[in-house]
Design brief:
heterodimer, A: alpha/beta, 5-stranded mixed β-sheet, two-stranded antiparallel ribbon, globular, B: mainly alpha, 1 helix, 57% helix
Chain lengths: 561, 51
Amino acid sequence: MVRRWVVPVWAVLLAVLLLGPALGPGYLLTYDMVWVPDLALRSDFLGAGTALPRAVPSDAVVAVLDEIVPGMLLQKVVLLGTLVLGGLGAAWLAGRSTLARLVAVSVYVWSPFVVERLWIGHWPLLLCWAVLPWLVREGVRLRADPRIGATLPFLLVLGSLSANAGLMSAATLLAVGATRRTAPRLVALVAAANAPWVVAGLLHAGTATSATTGSVFGLGGEGSLPGPVAALTLGGIWNAEVVPSSRTVLALPLALTVVLLALAALGARPLLRRLGRRTTGALCALWVVGYAVAVLSWAAPGAVAWLASTVPGGGLLRDGSRSLALCAPLLAALVAAGVERCADRCTDRELRVVVGVAGALVPLALMPAATWGISGALRPADYPQEWADARQALGAGHGDLLVLPFTSYRAPEWNHGHKVLDPLPRYLRPNYVVDDRLFVDGRAVPGEDPRVPDVLAALALPTPTARAHALADLGIGAVARDRTVPTTATYDAEVAGTPVFTSAALEVVEIDAPLDQREVPRAWWWALGVAWAAFAGLVLLGCWNVIHVMLTRMTTAVGSG
Amino acid sequence: MQAFFLILASMLVGGSVATFTVVGLVNSQTAPPDQSPASVSDPTLDYGTTN
């Protein structure tokens, strides 16, 4: 009985230890992770905006879910649930041995990939990472029983909340589960799960190329480790600011690499015996693809940047180390099998336990800085009360919203000075236009939204009235100005309008000029409607299958009673 | 063989505790200040820094 709960308890414990203060009251706002109390569903979240739909379908899904669960609680559930789900999935990959399952949980959860992507705020990618072992499990099941089952539709939805995530989830399910019999059905399911971002991306195909300067997002080295070596332990994110200190000091990352590779080598044969050729082969193929894409962005950043700037959708490859999620299931399974093999050589039961505990603690010991919210880097914050008042005053607004200063990232004092994508546009209710350029090492990486240069040109006009007319011509009906952010005339200028909210820190004005409403072509709505119907259909299929399973069990229970 | 594993495991468990302590101490004493806000002359904030 106790043994049954050891692994789930360990998974929860690790998740709590990793998130630490982030689970406290408030919103965790870190880099790209923006959660607000009540995210309003708006047409741009469905993919109808002018910018490349990078947050489709994640924003829309959150906007719907936070109608049921408050945003703050939903964020905690997503973060904690993601880590626990990932850990338990890895435990399944490790077989029946409690010892191996504990090790698999540690290796899977306490990894540089998880820590770095958590810090930079890529939660849809982490959700994908969490469902990958479960998709492997479903794939194995489907080869024996081609029925879709109750959990697969939900796993695909959770694993496809962004473009990269959707592709990796699809690849994993198809690699493990596709047979002549199951392939058509699985392809249909995968297509439905990915339909919103695929269709929204196709509608933006004209602007769906990235700048060549995007090569800065390739796999990077960590401390003394070059990128390809760091990637062996699933590290190597491009942004050095989100690399935990344990990965850059002393010889800890080197030791982690040596230990994990040695254990993985020991575990190769037992894993092949247990999972069989087909599943092990699929896991190996996924590892090769994930590692190759990551290393390609390190070895040939120019080629990847060319691809991103030439082929629509090629930008999916530019943040190369994202693909390392595909390497995680095999690594965890191999290391767990390696520790189990070591333990099997011990005849003494107590010694087996010591070996197991040591194996489960190795990842923590060699990356201790991840502890307690990455040594305190993950701290929740409360939004200023003025933001709620401004939201109330503006309401749904007329036309789109422009937030000034026209820069994308903030480091508000109320967020402990931590960087975050400006949360104000998401906090308020209308569609918005933001500067989608990114600045890395002081250099600008151009964005894709065609309205951004027009907004900058409008702000450069000589009078507030001229600016108001130019912005209204772009479909912008309101301007919110964060007065706490340092700015210059290039990114901020007075716009003629009627104030609807004014405080020391925040001002919202409705533009006094005839508004040229942005029209979304009818064909776009049809295409997006079909895509979202397919996505929603997948959720309904999951619900139907859950009800069916419950009814079957009840009938069986009554029959046997 | 068992003795070897016992020594190895003991080293790992002991090393874990020691590493946690040392790195935690070093981190707490050498942590950089919170990120400074954008400067007045250039309000754009770097999304990140490469190595």
